[in-house]
Amino acid sequence: MFAPSPIPDTEPSRDCPLCPRLAALRDEVRIEHPDWWNAPVPAFGDPEAWLGIIGLAPGKHGANRTGRPFTGDGSGSLLFRALGKCGLATGAFEGRADDSLRLEGAMVLNAVKCLPPQNKPAPEEIRTCRAFLETQVAAVPNARVFVALGQIAHQSAVKMLGGRLPKCRFAHLAEHRMPDGRILIDSYHCSRYNQNTGRLTDEMFDAVFARALELR
After folding, report:
1. Considering just the CA atoms, what is the radius of gyration of the chain in Å?
2. What are φ and ψ of residue 138, in 5° steps?
3. Is the separation of the CB atoms in 57 and 119 below 8 Å?
């Protein structure tokens, strides 16, 4: 069972052809794993959210498999635990799209909605998918604070929010006020690699969302 999008009118088609390299990989994985989601991964969360969380792209065994952002691999456990501590998540996260996890006040989006080879989207793929990110953020008008998970998400978020990259340099816990007053907070990505190497600790990640709550 796959989780439906809370903003379905903003989602690309399951067979979105706009990025040929990503579409070709999608076809390959569909043959290899026909029971997986294997399509652009939809948004997840509360349409009335005040907080937008922007990730990088689906992982092969994570969101590309389950159809829900940060679900199915090691990154989701840290993210949803942190959101639960802040009162932004309820229910139990069990790494499945049909578990009881719900977000309240938060929406999770991705800079790139399809699985990229080696988890590395090309610049033109990021640019192409930014149109969907812009449409989805516009569909969540109460979101005034955003968290970017990693540098690629940061760059896409800055451009989407109307900022300028030379003035908005990525750093963990860096804050950037956009021209219209919306605020972007940077975080290292909650990947299993960053967790295992100590680049991102629970305390560092919790501080990001604690700051978001202060800025609400």
Report:
1. 16
2. -65, -25
3. yes
- DSSP string covering 101-153: -EESSEEEEESS-SPPGGG---HHHHHHHHHHHHHHHHT-TT--EEEEESHHH
Q: pLDDT value at position 1? A: 63
- For the chain, list the domains and their CATH numbers: 15-215 (3.40.470.10)
Q: What is the pLDDT of residue 108?
A: 98
Q: Where are the beta strands (DSSP E) in the chain?
A: 44-45, 51-55, 89-90, 102-103, 106-110, 145-149, 175-177, 183-187
Helix (H, G, I), strand (E, B) or coil at 44: strand
Q: 59 falls in which pLDDT band (50, 70, 90)?
A: very high
Question: What is the strand order of the sheet 183-187 is part of?
Answer: 44-45, 106-110, 51-55, 145-149, 183-187, 175-177
